[in-house]
Write a structure and sequence with these properties.
By secondary structure, the chain is mainly α. The chain has one domain. 75% of the residues lie in helices and 0% in strands. The protein contains eight helices and no strands. Helix 1 packs antiparallel against helix 8, helix 2 runs antiparallel to helix 3 and helix 6 packs antiparallel against helix 8. It is elongated. The N and C termini lie close together (12 Å). The relative contact order is 0.17. The mean pLDDT is 95.
Length: 175
C-alpha cells in the first residue's frame, strides 16, 4: 500500500497529541480527590468532625475528571461499541461505519453539547453562581466550564478519529 499523505499524518499526530496531553493533565485530578476524601474520612470517623466541603469538592473533582477524560478515552478506544459485528468486518467497512457515524451522529451531538454547555457556563460565570445546596456555598461557575471544554476536547479527538476512519474506508487499512 502507498504511504499516507504526510499532511494527514501530521494532523492526526497533532490532534492525538492534544488528546494525550489533556488525558495526562486530567489524570492528576485524582490526587486532590483522594487527598480530600481521605481527609474527610479521617476527620469524620477519627475525630467526629465531618467537613462541610468534602462532598462538593468530591463531586466537582470527580465530575471534572470523568468529563474531561472523555477525549482521552476516545483516543484510547475505550468507549463502548458493539463488537459482535464490528470485529468481523473488514477495515474498509469499519472505516465507513465509523466515518459516517462521526459525521452524522458524533459531530452534530458534540456541537449541540458544546452550545448547551457554553450557554450554561457563560450564564454561570456572569452571575458568579454558587451552590445553593451547600452550607459553604462554593463557586460552581468554574465547574460548569467543564462541559464546553469537554465538548471541545471530544470534537478535536473526533476529527482525528474521523480522519483515521476515512483513511480506513478509502484504503482498507487503519493508520
Amino acid at each position: 500500500m502507498a504511504q499516507p499523505p504526510e499532511a494527514l499524518l501530521k494532523a492526526i499526530r497533532f490532534l492525538d497529541g492534544i488528546g494525550e496531553w489533556s488525558g495526562r493533565v486530567v489524570a492528576w485530578l485524582v490526587l486532590p480527590l483522594v487527598l480530600g476524601l481521605t481527609y474527610e474520612v479521617i476527620a469524620r470517623y477519627g475525630f467526629n468532625a465531618p467537613t462541610e466541603w468534602a462532598y462538593d469538592t468530591a463531586y466537582m473533582l470527580y465530575g471534572s475528571h470523568f468529563m474531561l477524560g472523555a477525549g482521552y478515552c476516545l483516543l484510547k478506544r475505550g468507549h463502548i461499541r458493539t463488537d459482535i459485528f464490528y470485529e468481523k468486518w473488514t477495515p474498509q467497512r469499519q472505516g465507513w461505519v465509523d466515518a459516517v457515524s462521526y459525521l452524522f451522529l458524533f459531530f452534530p451531538g458534540m456541537f449541540f453539547f458544546f452550545l448547551a454547555g457554553w450557554d450554561s457556563a457563560y450564564h454561570s460565570w456572569t452571575i458568579r453562581e454558587v451552590s445553593e445546596a451547600s452550607p459553604w456555598r462554593p463557586p460552581i461557575y468554574p465547574f460548569k466550564m467543564v462541559v464546553p471544554v469537554t465538548a471541545i476536547l471530544l470534537l478535536l479527538q473526533g476529527v482525528s478519529e474521523f480522519l483515521k476512519s476515512t483513511y480506513a474506508a478509502l484504503r482498507g487499512e487503519w493508520l
